[in-house]
Write a structure and sequence with these properties.
The protein is of the alpha/beta class. It is built from 12 helices and 16 strands.
Length: about 400
């Protein structure tokens, strides 16, 4: 009988995703003990005592700031996410953000709400007051997109269809993203170039040490004084103090973001939304299904796709007997792994090894069953972080 896996769920995860884990082989729930994997959305795992049994973590979303990724890497535990699964939802919110700013919709809505429906002069007050909220159209203006992943590409495409010019910057654009990028997007060579030439700027990069305060006191001054800066990624990417200084000096038109921090909330030139980027039923379903499929493929076959701390390794099965090995990215690990198997009389039919940063990952298909003592010998190699034997029923 095939192994049964246990998956701990820390948040409300879409049933469409959980159903991707078949009940005959997976025990899934919020009270699962000694789990093989964890599925999470927003719960903070940084302060959690993560059980030693955990072999993988799946984040039903894009960001992984709520997961101790570095500590998991040291344990040989991949952390999966769902990049692009919420892309359409975020794209639509970016378009809404541009319209909110360009047409002064927030102020207009507040004005109408303030009127008394019983006032006989209400219609006259509407006509007299509407000139205060006159705006401008998106067509003909330039949108700058910083970060050209799935979301950035969709935002660029939508803006072009609205008649806008688009300039984009991403020093680490992937081949897949490059293929998806509309040909009419002008390539920028720096963040500063995007800021200088755009009426709207939308940021779509992950929060890393390299991107923290990406928009800051030194470069925000490049922006047009009427420009709209939009941040639907992570709050730490934009320096709020720099934004407030620019708004106060009238060197920036509006700041639109998904993070209503105390310093910017209620500022008249700030449009802050309550982290709605992925808050659609469709996005939650897409994220849950994507990460569930990735966890299942890893637990059953050792394949790794969309792990933030592991290399992508996907190898078709050539045998019912497979080993998945995570180790420190140091010389001679593959040689030592092969030696242990050769000494045990195991014939390797296929092998794939890749690395990412400090972590390397190897899948090995062999022609016969792997004894427990071989797994123990592999774990005893200095630098090996985790070994999983993944036999498949034939």
């Amino acid at each position: 009988m095939a192994d049964q896996f246990k998956v701990l769920v820390l948040n409300q995860i879409s049933q469409s995703g959980l159903k991707r884990l078949p009940a005959e082989r997976y025990v899934v729930g919020k009270d699962v003990t000694a789990p093989d994997a964890v599925m999470v959305r927003s719960a903070n795992m940084n302060t959690m005592d993560i059980p030693a049994s955990v072999r993988a973590i799946g984040r039903a979303g894009a960001g992984t700031n709520n997961i101790p990724v570095k500590a998991m890497s040291a344990r040989g535990v991949p952390v999966f996410n769902a990049p692009g699964a919420n892309a359409n939802a975020v794209k639509e919110l970016v378009i809404a953000g541009m319209l909110l700013a360009a047409r002064n919709l927030g102020g207009a809505l507040a004005f109408v709400t303030s009127l008394d429906p019983a006032d006989a002069e209400m219609e006259k007050k509407v006509e007299d007051g509407k000139k205060t909220f006159a705006g401008y159209e998106l067509a003909g203006n330039t949108l700058g997109v910083i970060g050209l992943g799935k979301i950035g590409c969709l935002v660029a495409d939508a803006a072009i269809k609205l008649g806008m010019q688009v300039i984009g910057y991403d020093p680490e654009i992937t081949v897949d993203a490059a293929w998806s990028l509309p040909a009419r997007v002008k390539k920028a060579h720096s963040v500063a170039e995007v800021l200088k030439n755009s009426h709207f700027v939308s940021i779509h990069v992950p929060l890393l040490e390299a991107t923290r305060d990406l928009i800051n006191q030194d470069n925000i001054g490049h922006m047009k004084h009427t420009a709209v800066l939009m941040n639907f990624s992570r709050d730490g990417i934009v320096n709020e103090a720099a934004v407030l200084t620019a708004l106060q000096a009238k060197k920036l038109g509006h700041y639109v973001c998904d993070f209503p921090g105390p310093r910017i909330n209620r500022h008249p030139l700030v449009i802050a939304l309550p982290h709605l980027g992925a808050s659609t039923g469709e996005a939650e379903e897409n994220c849950a299904m994507m990460v569930a499929d990735q966890l299942r493929d890893f637990l059953e076959h050792g394949n790794v796709q969309n792990a933030v701390n592991f290399p992508a390794v996907v190898m078709p099965r050539e045998s019912a007997y497979r080993l998945a090995i995570a180790n420190a990215n140091v010389p001679n690990m593959v040689g030592q792994i092969s030696t242990v198997m050769a000494q045990a009389g195991l014939n390797i039919s296929n092998m794939m090894n890749k690395s990412k940063g400090d972590v390397a990952y190897t899948l090995v298909d062999v022609d016969s069953a792997v004894p427990t003592k071989v797994v123990d010998s592999l774990m005893a190699i200095p630098g090996v972080l985790a070994v999983h034997y993944l036999p498949q029923e034939t």
